[in-house]
């Protein structure tokens, strides 16, 4: 029961947090935080995290094992996959969902590449998210001005068969300050036009108040990475400053992990309405 497909915990009209893990400490902290909040959660690994490890297998299998041992529903998702090969590997490992990110391609190429991924994933019962409108910041260049056009988004969903759509509504990836200005009117129009759950990327740049408003306006899956890394790093830094002679990684990584878990629990109470 605890490892579930993403489609099982994404309910239109209700917020669902999706947290990015980089290493094992993130994985266990995300599950611990969700259990403390008694909330379902999406545990996701990005293509960049896979590049960091050099392979999907070790960290992917760890995430799946942690999900299976959890006492709350946990979905394991591949985030921002840029290659169909990585998608196929995640499907074989047992991931319940993937995000295929061809958002930097011209519209027609994005449709063609995404449709092929959807056909493969749906044959295996795997849920697919794609992106239209290109949320900025992945390359370090913030572009909060990007916007997804509702009519084009509806056409894209119909042409590809995706189960959820990431849209550009004012966020940018990897913001260190939580002062993004969301286009709530556009979120409402996308919700009314698109017909599948909407995904907010770059949610670390959004204040608690606006995260809650975004869910009320129509966003469903709320992706958060940088905010957790800020808390994890602060926990490690604080521990090392207070214990300059410590050399056992379990001490300082454990301090980071505890802080990350507390932030997951806190954010779930903001997002899961
Ligand atoms: O796909 C992951 C997210 O969009 C995370 O973005 O690091 O700005 O929270 P963030
Ligand atoms: Zn993202």
UniProtKB/TrEMBL annotation:
Gene3D superfamilies: Aldolase class I. The active site is at 79 (proton donor). The keyword Metal-binding applies. Transmembrane segments: none annotated. GO terms for molecular function: aldehyde-lyase activity; zinc ion binding. PANTHER family: D-TAGATOSE-1,6-BISPHOSPHATE ALDOLASE, D-TAGATOSE-1,6-BISPHOSPHATE ALDOLASE SUBUNIT GATY-RELATED. Binds 2 Zn(2+) ions per subunit. One is catalytic and the other provides a structural contribution. One of its GO terms (biological process) is carbohydrate metabolic process. This is Class II fructose-bisphosphate aldolase. Coiled coil: none annotated.
């Amino acid at each position: 029961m605890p490892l579930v497909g993403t489609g099982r915990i994404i309910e239109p009209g209700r917020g669902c947090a999706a947290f990015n893990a980089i290493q094992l400490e993130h994985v266990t902290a995300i599950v611990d935080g969700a259990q403390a909040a008694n909330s379902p959660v999406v545990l996701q690994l990005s293509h960049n995290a896979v590049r960091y490890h050099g392979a999907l297998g070790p960290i992917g299998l760890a995430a799946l094992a942690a999900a299976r041992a959890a006492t709350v529903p946990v979905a394991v998702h591949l985030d921002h996959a840029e290659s169909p090969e990585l998608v196929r590997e995640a499907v074989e490992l047992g991931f319940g969902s993937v995000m295929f990110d061809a958002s930097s391609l011209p519209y027609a190429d994005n449709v063609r590449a995404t449709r092929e991924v959807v056909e493969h994933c749906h044959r295996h019962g795997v849920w697919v998210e794609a992106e239209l409108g290109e949320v900025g910041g992945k390359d370090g260049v913030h572009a909060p001005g990007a916007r997804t056009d509702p009519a084009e988004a509806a056409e894209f969903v119909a042409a590809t068969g995706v189960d959820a759509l990431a849209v550009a509504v004012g966020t940018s990836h990897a913001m260190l300050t939580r002062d993004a200005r969301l286009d709530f009117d556009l979120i409402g129009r996308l919700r009314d036009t698109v017909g599948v759950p909407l995904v907010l990327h770059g949610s670390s740049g959004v204040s608690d108040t606006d995260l809650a408003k975004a869910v009320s306006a129509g966003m469903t899956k709320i992706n958060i990475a940088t905010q957790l890394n800020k808390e994890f790093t602060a926990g490690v830094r604080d521990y090392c400053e207070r214990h300059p002679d410590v050399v056992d990684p379990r001490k300082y990584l454990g301090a980071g992990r505890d802080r990350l878990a507390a932030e997951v629990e806190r954010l779930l109470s903001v997002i899961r309405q």
